[in-house]
Specification:
- The protein is an alpha/beta fold.
- It has a domain at 209-301.
- The chain has 10 helices and 5 strands.
- The chain is elongated, with a radius of gyration of 26 Å.
C-alpha cells in the first residue's frame, strides 16, 4: 500500500488548484518549477504582455519544466524597441523592431543564471497588434533559447543538490509542529533531477503518513466518544460520518472499520434497522486511487504559506 501511495505522490501534484499557482499540471511532481513573469513596461501594450507571458510559459513547459506562478526561479523578459516605422499602405501598418532580453535567475537571492537577447520584428495596424506579432514570433525551441534555458536548469539542479538536505530537515521540523501540508509542499518542490529526489519522496511519504495518522486518531476518538454517549441510530449515523473521513492509508482506518462493524451490530440489536455503512467503506476501498489523488491536491493548499515573491522589483 505504501509503495502504491509513493507512486501516486511522485506523479500526482499540484492540480493543486487550491494552490496559489496558475498553470502547474497535476502530473508535475518532480519537475523544475519556474515562473514566467512579464514586468509592466510602458512601451509594451497590456495585450502584448499577456502574449509574451504565454510564450515564456511555452518555453518553460516545452523544455521539461513546470510553469508555476510563485517560484523563486523565474524567466523575466525586458523589451527594447529599436525602430518604429509607419508603412505607407492601405491601411497604414506599424512596423516595429525590438530586442527582447530574457533573463533566467533566482528571485530570492537575486542571482542571474544567464540571459539571451533576440531581435524580433512585428507588423500590425497599430502598436498593440505589432507587439502581439512580435510576441507570437518567439520560438520556444530556438537553439539559442534552448541553450539559455538549459543553462538555467543546470543552475537550479545545482541549487537543489546543495540545499535538498536542509529543505527536508526544515520540512520535517515543520511537520513535527503539525504543519504537515506545508512540509509536504516544500519537500515536493525538490525536482526529480536532483540527486536527493528519492530522499525527498521518502520524507514526503513519512510526513503524509504522520498527517493521516494524526487526523485519523482525532476523528476516531471523536467518533468513539460520540457513539458511547449516544448509542442509537442517529448517533450511529453521526459517528460513522466521522469515521468515513479517516483516510484509507491512516493507521486508524482498521480501527475505524472495527468500530463501524460494532456500531452496525449494535444498531441492528437495539433498533432493528438495516445498516449499510460497511458498503460505503468498501466503496472507499474501490476509490482508493481517487482518494490518493485528492490527498495530494489537499496537500498542495499549503502553497499559500510560501513566500510571495515581488517580481516587479527584479530588474536584472
Amino acid at each position: 500500500m505504501k509503495k502504491f501511495f509513493l507512486l501516486f505522490l511522485a506523479v500526482t501534484l499540484f492540480s493543486l488548484s487550491g494552490y496559489s499557482q496558475t498553470s502547474t499540471a497535476s502530473g508535475d511532481v518532480g519537475m523544475l518549477a519556474v515562473t514566467a513573469f512579464v514586468p509592466h513596461q510602458d512601451a509594451v501594450p497590456a495585450q502584448a504582455e499577456k502574449n509574451l507571458e504565454a510564450k515564456i510559459k511555452q518555453m518553460v513547459s516545452s523544455n521539461g519544466m513546470s510553469s508555476l506562478s510563485n517560484s523563486r526561479f523565474a524567466i523575466i523578459p525586458h523589451v527594447m524597441v529599436t525602430d518604429k516605422q509607419v508603412q505607407a499602405s492601405a491601411p497604414p501598418m506599424i512596423v516595429l523592431n525590438a530586442d527582447i532580453t530574457f533573463y533566467f535567475g533566482d528571485v530570492e537571492s537575486g542571482n542571474v543564471f544567464g540571459s539571451v537577447t533576440k531581435s524580433y520584428k512585428g507588423v500590425g495596424q497599430n502598436d498593440t497588434k505589432a507587439f502581439v506579432a512580435i510576441a507570437n514570433s518567439i520560438k520556444p525551441k530556438d537553439p539559442e533559447i534552448l541553450e539559455f534555458i538549459e543553462s538555467g536548469k543546470v543552475k537550479i539542479i545545482e541549487y537543489y543538490d546543495k540545499q535538498a538536505d536542509q529543505i527536508i530537515k526544515k520540512a520535517l521540523a515543520a511537520a513535527d509542529m503539525g504543519n504537515y501540508d506545508q512540509a509536504i509542499a516544500d519537500i515536493l518542490m525538490i525536482p526529480e533531477a536532483c540527486s536527493k529526489y528519492s530522499d525527498a519522496i521518502n520524507a514526503a511519504s513519512q510526513v503524509f503518513q504522520k498527517k493521516v495518522d494524526n487526523e485519523g486518531a482525532t476523528l476516531y476518538n471523536e467518533a468513539y466518544t460520540l457513539w458511547n454517549a449516544q448509542q442509537n441510530y442517529e448517533g450511529a449515523e453521526q459517528a460513522c460520518a466521522i469515521l468515513a473521513r479517516i483516510h484509507p492509508l491512516s493507521s486508524y482506518f482498521p480501527k475505524a472499520r472495527t468500530l463501524s462493524d460494532n456500531i452496525g451490530k449494535r444498531v441492528r440489536e437495539i433498533d432493528k434497522r438495516e445498516w449499510n455503512f460497511m458498503l460505503k467503506q468498501q466503496q472507499n476501498e474501490v476509490d482508493l486511487q481517487k482518494a490518493l489523488i485528492n490527498a495530494t491536491k489537499e496537500v498542495a493548499k499549503a502553497e499559500a504559506s510560501r513566500p510571495v515573491y515581488n517580481y516587479n522589483v527584479i530588474w536584472w
